[in-house]
Amino acid sequence: MARQTLSASILLAVAAGLSIGSAQAQQTQVCQPMVPATTPTADFTLEGGTALHQRTGLMWMRCSLGQQWSGGRCIGEASSYSWTGASSAVDQLNQQGGYAGYSDWRLPTRGELHSIVERRCLNPSINEQVFPATRQHWYWTGSEFEGDRRGYAWAVIFTRGYDSWSSEQLFQYPIRLVRDAR
Q1: Quick one: pLDDT at residue 26?
Q2: Contact 69/48 with Cβ under 8 angstroms?
Q3: What are the structural domain ranges in the chain?
Q4: SS3 state of residue 53
Q5: Which one is predicted more confidently, 70 or 15?
Q6: Which residues, 6+ apart, have CB-to-CB distance to 56 below 8 Å?
Q7: Is pLDDT at 17 greater than 90 in this prediction?
Q8: Whole-angstrom distance, CA of residue 159 vs CA of residue 104
Q9: N or C end of the chain: which has fewer CB within 10 A?
Q10: 35-180 architecture in CATH?
């Protein structure tokens, strides 16, 4: 009985920490200059609102969906979606002509979204020269959780750069879209 109470207490503490953490104000990015960059700006070809990652051959939207690229930066607030809502938003964008001349945008896989995590930085854990105004929040991937829990998908958090699975319907997160450029 004591073990169940302790487990429940730990679970509640973790859940409370996640919801408190997501509601906190944006912090200033902190990078460790002595640690080599995992996503150096030189690895990307920047063209307006898109970034071509030379290492992976993926083209990324530099802004989260809902923001607008203007004057060399992302303007406005990122939209948040349930996982199924995110898929619908991507379909709608592509059907309405796409972005930057392309209409084959999609949600990134879990591995693809991790490929733009900047491991030497926190708050957010992303190269802000390439991806400005990234929310310190969870971002959906297109990868569903493959396990005993149906209705869950993977998300990556850009405060620290780790991932977890989340309920596809319960949570609303921003998205950053990608396309295959090769």
Answers
A1: 63
A2: yes
A3: 35-180
A4: strand
A5: 70
A6: 112, 115
A7: no
A8: 28
A9: N
A10: Roll (3.10)
Instruction: Name the nearest CA neighbour of 166 among 59, 86, 63, 89.
Output: 86
Q: What is the pTM of this model?
A: 0.84
Tokens of 98: 């796409």
Kindly compute the dihedral angle of the four CA atoms of residues 94, 97, 103, 109, in this order, to the nearest 10 degrees: -30
pLDDT (tens digit per residue) in 83-120 = 999 999 999 999 999 999 999 999 999 999 999 999 99
List, for residues 50-67, the tens digit of each pLDDT value. 999 999 999 999 999 999
Residues 6 or more apart in contact with residue 102 via CB below 8 angstroms: 59, 179
What pLDDT is recorded for position 27? Answer: 79
Largest CA distance in the chain: 60
Stated length of the chain: 182
CA 62, CA 81: separation in Å to the nearest integer? 18
Q: What is the DSSP string of 101-165?
A: TB---BPPPHHHHHTTB-TTEESS-B-TTTSTT--SSEEEEEEEP-SS-TTEEEEEETTT--EEE
| Residues 137, 72, 32, 155, Cα dihedral to 10° | 20
Tokens of 30: 């902190």
CA distances from 1 to 4, 15, 71, 85 (A): 5, 21, 60, 41
